[in-house]
Amino acid sequence: MNAFDEVNLSFDRAADRLDLDDGTRDLLKKPWRELTVSVPVRMDDGSIKVFNGYRIQHNAARGPYKGGTRYHPRADVDEVRALASLMTWKAAVANIPFGGGKGGIQCDPTTMSEPELNRMTRRYTVNIHHLLGVNRDIPAPDMGTNSQTMAWMMDAYGSIEGYTPGIVTGKPIELGGSVGRDSAPGQGVVYVMDEAAGDLGLTVSGARVAVQGFGQVGSWVARAAHTRGCKVIAVSDVEGGIYNPAGLDVPRVAERYRQCSRLAGFPDAETLTNAELLELDCDVLVPAAIEGAIHKDNADRVKAAVVVEAANHPVTPEGDSVLNDRGVQVMPDILVNAGGVVGSYFEWTQNLYQRRWDEREVNAELRKIMAGAYRAVREVVRREQVTFREAAFLLGVGRVHRAAKLRGFV
Ligand code: GLU
C-alpha cells in the first residue's frame, strides 16, 4: 500500500460514517489536478541532471490550494498525493480558508550545492508557475526546503508575473515573511497539548517529551515544549539522537546545532539511535521527522502515553491500530501539526493587506485557532465515540463535503 492509499483508509472510514455515495467519495478523494514536470538542472560539474517535479492540487472547495514543497528522494507522485490530501483535511480541521495541495522534487537536496538548489528551484517554479496564484495555489516549505527556497520561488514567480510576495509562504522576514511563522509548527503542538492535557491526564509542565527530528518542525517543537516547562529528554536528527533523563538544555542544543549541524557529541547527554528514541520511557513521544516512523514492528514497544504526530503521516495504519489497542492516545497530524499552515495563513493575510503583525498577535491568533480545532475534534470524539484521528477526519471531510455541496459540485 502506498502513502496515498494509507491516508485514504482514514478518509474511507470517515466517508462511511458520513454515508457518502461513491461519486462523492471520488470527488473528495481524487486530486483535482496533477502536474508532473521535468526539471533539468546544470550541475556544478557541468553535467545536466533531470529531476521529476510535481505540483498536486488535491481540493479547493474551501479556498485556494495550499501546501508545502518537498525535496526528498522518496517524494514520488504517490507521496505528494498523500501529502496534498492531508493538507485538504488539515486546513479544514483548522477551519482556515484553504484547500490542499503539495509539490515536490524527487532529489536528495543534502548532496546538492546551494547554486544547484537555486537553479533547480527556479526551473521548477517556472515550470509550474501557471498553476500558482495568490488566490489559486500558494506553496510553502516542507521537508528539504526552507525560507531560502521560498525566496527563490518568489523571485522566479515575480520575474514572470511581477512582485507577488503572497505567492509563497514561509519566506524570509525581509521579503514579506511573518514573524512567528518558523516557530508556529512547534507553538501549535504545544497549544494543542495545553488544551488536551486535562482530557489526556497529562501535566504539560514537567512532562517528559522525546522528539524524533530536529529540523524545521522538531527543533521548534522541542524549543516550545522546553519553554512551556516540559522536560525534553531526547531529540534526534537523521544520524541519531541525544538523551538526558534529567532533561536537555534545548536552547543550548539548538544553538550548537545551528553552528555544527549535528547533535552527536553534545555534552551532558548520551547518544541513542532513532529506533531507541521511539521506545523511550516518556510521557509524550513526538515523531517530527519521516513518514511511517512508527509501524507494526515497533508500535508495541512505544512506552509513551501519548503520541503527538508533528510530522505528516508518521504512524502507519497498522502501527496506529497497535497503539490504539494498547491505549496509547495518538494525536493526529491533521490536527496537531496545523500550526505551520496556520502560520502560513497569517503570512498570506499580511501579504494581501500589505501590513505586519507582531509576534504577540501571531501567537495569540495561533493559540485561538489551534485550541478551537482541538475542541471541535474533541466534541466529535465524545459524540461519535471514536479516536482523535477518526474524529479529525470526520470533521475535515465533513467540512470539505459541505463546501463542495454549497458550491454545487455534488
Ligand atoms: N509543509 C507544512 C505542512 O505540511 C506547511 C504547509 C503550508 O504552510 O502551506 O503542513
Shape category: globular
> What is the CATH-assigned architecture of the largest domain?
3-Layer(aba) Sandwich
CATH topology of the largest domain: Rossmann fold
Structural class estimated from helices and strands: alpha/beta
| Helix/strand order | HHEEEHEHEHHEHEEHEHEEHEHHHH
Strand order of the largest sheet: 9-8-7-6-10-11-12
CATH superfamily annotation of the largest domain:
NAD(P)-binding Rossmann-like Domain
- CATH class descriptor name of the largest domain: Alpha Beta
Q: Could you tell me the strand content as a percent range? A: 15-25%
Low-confidence stretches: none
Ends apart, CA distance between termini: 29 Å
Bound molecules: glutamic acid
Number of strands: 12
- Overall domain count: 2
Helical amount among residues, as a percent range? 40-55%
CA radius of gyration is 20 Å
Mean pLDDT: 97
Largest sheet: 7 strands, mixed
Helix tally equals: 14
Outline of the structure:
By secondary structure, the protein is an alpha/beta fold. The chain has 14 helices and twelve strands. Strand 3, helix 3 and strand 4 form a beta-alpha-beta unit.
What does this structure look like?
The chain folds into two domains: 31-166, Rossmann fold (3-Layer(aba) Sandwich); 184-336, Rossmann fold. 46% of the residues lie in helices and 17% in strands. It has 14 helices and twelve strands. The chain has helices at residues 3-18, 22-29, 77-94, 114-128, 147-161, 184-200, 218-227, 250-260, 274-278, 317-325, 333-336, 339-353, 359-384, 388-407; strands at residues 33-42, 48-59, 65-71, 100-106, 137-141, 208-212, 231-237, 240-243, 270-272, 284-287, 306-308, 329-331. β11 (306-308), α10 and β12 form a beta-alpha-beta unit. The structure holds glutamic acid (GLU). Glutamic acid (GLU) is lined by residues 66-68, 140, 142, 169, 312, 337, 340-341, 344.
